[in-house]
Amino acid sequence: MHKLNVLVIAAALASGVVSGTAAAGGQTITSGRHHDDIANDLSDTHYSMFDGVRLTEQQRQQMRDLMSQERLGIPYINVSETERLHTLVTAEKFDEPAVRAQMELIAQQDLVRQVHMAKIRNQMYNLLTPEQRHILDEKHQQRIAEIKLRMLH
C-alpha cells in the first residue's frame, strides 16, 4: 500500500490536475478535437492500450460512443484534496499521520478512477477482432519484457 500511495502522490504532484480528456478508439478526445496519440488518456499511463492496432471507423465510433456514455461516471481528481496534500507537504512541521491519511484518501479516489477506466478498456477490448487482440497481446508482452529488462539495470 505504501508504494501505491507514493506513486499516486507523485503522479498527482507531477501532473497537476487531470483535465477532461478521454481516450477512444486510438484517438484522444480533448475539447472535441481528435488526436492520434492517446498517451494522455484518463489512465495516465505512458502508453495506450491500443497502440499499434489499426481500428476500423466503426470500431472508432463504437469506442467514442462508449467513452461519451461513460464520461459522466468517471470521477475527477478532487483538487481540494491535492491542495490539502500540498499544504501538508509544505508545512513548517511534517505531520506524518496527516500526510498518510491524505495520501490514503487520494489513493482510494484514484483506485475508483482506475477501476472505472479498466471497465471501459475491457468494453473496448471486446470490440476488437481476434487478430487485433493478438497484436495487443504481442505489444503487451513486449512492454512487460522491456519493464523487466529495465528492472535488471
Question: Features of this protein?
Answer:
5 helices; 153 residues; mainly alpha
Short account of what is shown:
It is built from 5 helices and 3 strands, in the order αβββαααα. The protein is mainly alpha-helical and 153 residues long. Helix 1 packs across helix 4 and helix 3 packs antiparallel against helix 4.
Describe this protein's structure.
This protein has 153 residues and is mostly helical. The chain has helices spanning 2-15, 57-70, 79-89, 96-125, 130-152, and strands spanning 22-24, 27-30, 33-35. Strands 1-2-3 form a 3-stranded antiparallel β-sheet, covered by helices on one side. Strand 1 and strand 2 form a beta hairpin. Helix 3 (79-89) packs antiparallel against helix 4 (96-125). The model is unreliable at 4-47 (pLDDT under 50).
Helical percent range?
55-70%
Strand arrangement across the biggest beta sheet: 1-2-3
**What is the averaged pLDDT score?**
74
Number of helices: 5
Biggest pleated sheet:
3 strands, antiparallel
Gyration radius, in Å: 18 Å
SSE arrangement:
Layout: H1 2-15, E1 22-24, E2 27-30, E3 33-35, H2 57-70, H3 79-89, H4 96-125, H5 130-152
Antiparallel strand pairs: 1-2, 2-3
Helix pairs in contact: 1-4, 3-4
